[in-house]
Amino acid sequence: MDWIQLPLGALQTNCYILSNQAKECIVFDPGAEGEKLVQWLNKNDLKPLAILLTHAHFDHIGAVEQVRQAFNIPVYLHKEEEDWLVNPALNGSARFQLGEVSGQPADYLLKDEASLEIGSFSFQLFHTPGHSPGSVSYFFEEGNVLFAGDTLFMGSIGRTDLPGGNHEQLLKSIHDHLLTLPEEVIVLPGHGPATMIGDEMESNPFLNGF
């Protein structure tokens, strides 16, 4: 298994591609530049199986429709944000000057805590609200990586000043779900560089006391 980080769009949102030896892959958070992303996947002979969304803020979903239609694959999203893909007011794109984002509903709605298997890929789902009500972190144990969206960053945490955000809830999500993982787990955030659970436990100023 292998993963690659592709920062996309004006906000440089990290899209991640997780692939196996058969060249099958999972696409996480295709946030923008859909044509570029589709071309990259085709150039690398990858066969997407699904789109997994950590949450449905506009900068994480801007290329969903292009990728979904190009490869005829399903989209997974937490049930708390069921309407966000179709509603610019909910996904935040109506608030910013980067163009409104809307598309079709997700094909599958995720529950709170469960496992998810897609082809040869198996994930543990953590419902990690705080940055947004339906934020989900996907733990891929085989690769020792956590796709954390905008929940946890290197030296920081997700913003909570957008509608549905809650600072205390975010800290609880991080404490209850993420900091219980092995310290060597690699955290793949929605923006910026990768980090590790142990490093954030030791040095993240927002997590003092945990």
Automatic annotation (TrEMBL):
Domain Metallo-beta-lactamase span(s) in chain numbering: 12-191
InterPro entries membership: MBL_Glyoxalase_II, Metallo-B-lactamas, RibonucZ/Hydroxyglut_hydro
Lineage: Bacteria, Bacillati, Bacillota, Bacilli, Bacillales
Cofactor(s), by name: Zn(2+)
SUPFAM superfamilies attached to this UniProt entry: Metallo-hydrolase/oxidoreductase
Source organism (scientific name): Bacillus lumedeiriae
Protein's name in the database: MBL fold metallo-hydrolase
Keywords: Hydrolase, Metal-binding, Zinc
Lineage top rank: taxon: Bacteria
